Amino acid sequence: MGLLSDPSRRKVLTGLLTRLNTPICIVCYLAGIVWFMGLAFEPFTLRTYMSENAMGSTMVEERFSSGERALSLAKEFDAHKRKAGGMPVEWLVKAMQSRGLEVFTQSFSRKLPFPDENKERYMVRGTNVYGILRAPRAPRTEALVITAPCSPGNTNNQAVALLLALAQYFRNQIYWAKDIIFLVNEHDLIGTQAWLEGYHHTNITGMEYSPLQGRAGSIQAALSLELSSDVITSLDLVLEGLNGQLPNLDLANLFYAFCQKLGVLCTIQGKLQRNDWDTAEGYTHAAQTMMLMVLKQACGRSWGDHGLFLRYHIEAASVRGINSFRHYKTDATTIGRLLEGMVRKLNNLLERLHQSYFFYLLPSLSRFVSIGYYMPAFGLLAVILLLRVSFPGLCHCFSVSLQPSSPGVLTVLTPVVISHLTGVALYLLPVHLQEMAVEHFPVSETEAVVLTAIAIYTAGLALPHNTQRLLSGEGTEQGWKVLKLTALLYLAVLLGCTALINFSLGFILAVTLVPITASITPHMPKALYALVMVLLSPAFTILYCVFIYQELIEAPVSVSEGWMLFLSVISQGILDHALYGSLVYPLLALFIYPCWLMFWNILFWN
Amino acid sequence: HTHLNYKLGLTLQNRTSEALTPAAAARDEFQEELVIRPLHSGDIYASFQFRTLWDTDFLQEGQKVSHYRLFPKSLGQVLSKFSVRELHISFTQGFWRTMQWGQPFIPSPPGAELWVWFHDTVSDVDGNWKELTNVLSGIFCASLNFIDLTNTVQPSASFKPLGLGNATDHRFLRYATLPREIVCTENLTPWKKLLPCGSKAGLAVLLKSEKLFHSSFHSQAVHIRPVCQDEQCTSKAWELRQTLNVVFDLYTAGQGKKEWSLFKMFSRTLTEACPLATSSKVYVDITDNPELSPATPLLSQAVVLGDRRTYSVFDLTRAETFGQLRSLNLLLRWKGDGEMLRPLLHAERYVAGFGLQTGEIHTVIYNNHPYRAFPVLLMDSVPWYLQLYIHTLTVTSKSRDNKPSYIHYQPAKDRHRPHLLEMLIQLPPHSMTEVTVQFERALLKWTEYTPDPNHGFYVGSSVVSALVPSMVAMNTNFTQDQPLFSSFVPVKEESSYFVRVYTEPLLVNLPTPDFSMPYNVICLTCTVVAVGYGSFYNLLTRTFQVDEPSLPLAKRLANLIRRIRGVPLLT
Which of A159, A423, B167, B354 sits at 20 to 30 Å (Cα–Cα) from B483? Predict the structure, then answer.
């Protein structure tokens, strides 16, 4: 610290930082991006390994053999599903009871805030059926959950049937130390949410459900199974959960270990692993896989039934069977064995999964990037905001603004308050004004909500940029500096907190927001900068993410399709918030958007 | 010595030769009994009871006991040394599924449970209790030494003495559970050694650990209490009851047919009674008409837990029981389609909420009686690290507030004693009563965590005790030839019977620091960031002035002199 305490050298350093502020910021920004892209490069990543001793060293021999029976069961289930026109509750109860489980049902109902056009539902009413396999000589304190959603149409019959076949096989074994709950849930995530809320006797989303009759203590881990064909070519592992939460990495390791052992092709983000990391294609492949994970995590929704378990501190993942045109096929018996192996190893757990990482990115199933490696990428972007805060031109006015007599505080307060009020309007009005909008315009409820949101968002652009005049007349030079100082600190705190919880979201927002916010002043060519600012605003970020995501999953869309997708993403975001408590929509509406508006305000300061 | 015992046993059986032996010895007695009950679920319930009566009264002043016959010396010494009036200890692996299996003959919570009434002459009860648990820990090869003041309570009403005497001062009662205790062969062996015949003869030959622990439920217990020797209660005796309950599972046992035999259950058959036993009987519950072979003409009826049951009785002291093959292998086969008698009282418990800060304990008690309300005593002992908010305690029945008529609450002291909550609640007929209380999870000191902190911490079962109205008249007259399983809890009135129901224990996660490397890394990086950023920020925001370089010592001295002289200073 000699450098910092020596006044003359400090002066040099200060001078250097002041003089080279802009170049340093540019270098930091580029370094952040490069660091992030470098994360997918294999030599920079770590190989995954099993940290949990209880799952690593124990041997498990898989003996499940009734895959064929499961497939015929799937046909039977399908027939009953058609007959019942939905979930065949009675048949499932009987099927589980005859396999020696304690069976319970839970009915639930939920009125969505507005109709979900993707899944075509508004008033949802359903029943969950679950059977508990009581472990011998266990005191009902710990449990594992295996779930299979009962989906409409032809999908997922095999998953439910495999679940029943596994239940039958598991029931005859003596080695269980934890109770196993077999859950068949209706209406996918809504059913899971109802069941989880019932199990933990909470009500956070306004769901109506009947109380659960049977419980099995604290749930240690959960697996969700999605399977729609008799044979599959590969199994896909889905990890991203609500609010970007991820299960412990050991769960992914466990899945990967058993895929290796049984010779099942396994993918993550639907992408197979490649061995040619030293070629450009190999790197691009890994980068695409990682980018997909980042995009999925950033959007904060649950990408499978497992995602809702994570809130309750239950490690969970979804296993999805993919049937494509490859020649190599895996039958139901092998999938059953894979699940048997995983459940038996989870059964061996002495503690909750906690040994391995909770914060990671996966460029492939066998490689991971831990928090220590990816955080610097974000840090390099965030430090730009701090460098701009400490930019002498700004920090002098900081001391000025603290004097109570100065008009600075008031001039700043008005735009801050007005920006946030716009944010509150963006958060509250779309859902609450839908009826009025439907009355006056020829649109459906869903369209009404989304279009209201976009309208308020756009109106916000016009509203606040003259607000400081309301109180103090002419905007002063000092005024915008104080405002920029406040806004920069605010953004730094916001992004920092977001990145700690959901790195992907924080990083994506930082990439788009930092360059413009760091450079904005009122003395720039207004029209050009206004255009750039709008193009880098949160809404456009979502739009770009939609296009990039479609590109990455190899389903590119045209501009108009992309626009439709963008609209549905917004409606899904609002629905996710209302139904499952996803926090991305309130974060964007209540904090990020107002913060961006404050910078918008600076541009039009006069 | 065993030879002598054997001889004594023979004399016991043969009362005509009583004159040859000392009178006191003749009154020691040993009975053994096995009850087999086929369950509706297809499982089968086997309950062993061994009862040793010891005709002595060492609690009287000056009486010294040095001679032991049938009663195990290890326990006898413990009783006299610690002035124990009554002792109940149970080790259970698994949870009794009341709704599928009905009520057990003698209930017990998962893990270990110990409750002891001390004699009212004891001055240092806590000291005696501490020593006693350590001694018992050695006798039963169990972790009872983990019982200390932090998990011991003194229930005021739930645990009354079951034997003679009307002790009501709960200062002499200690109750503790260890929900985490795992029961295994090493606990079974010392338990078997307490039997007069060991596991060499009689019913105890069936107790093979490889089968007993291949089951859904296993519970073994020891109950010691003073009882009357005869109906007039002219003399007292000590009664030692050793019970072992086991439920075998239909599915894990093989083909899933409701077909059981002694051999299939225990991989042994019976060939003789314990020679020291005055009575040795096998009861098979045939109320639901299972096919039983060999058939026996001996039938017995008993009213147990409010239900009149019919039993086939096999008397092992009679040679004809064993038939031609000289071995008894009972075969049972049943359909089990009929309705099970719904247990009138049933309770369960769970933790509600999520996150590691707060939570809520829900205890749900069901009264399945169609038209009778009855009161129950609920006892909850919660460790101190769940800090109960007792003001949030609610009791609701049929969505209406149900005010308990008696509440005894003793708050916890951090690191010293647990919470104790006892309530007398009236259960309306055919109702579900929910008792909820919120708690906050304490942050422990880092040395207080167990080696596996992420497993969670256990909260023992709550205990619901009740006099349940009986559908049939209970048998109140006390006779010697009553089967053991129906005579454990004394029945005082015909209209009701005593039931104790245990809920499941809870596993609660406390906020746990990450004890491994990442924790250090975070601390380290935070420090670096704090120091680095702090000085960086300081550097950039402060305005600097160049300090005048300080003068050399000689010049300063010169200045000092110049100041005194009043001439201009050097610079």
Answer: B167
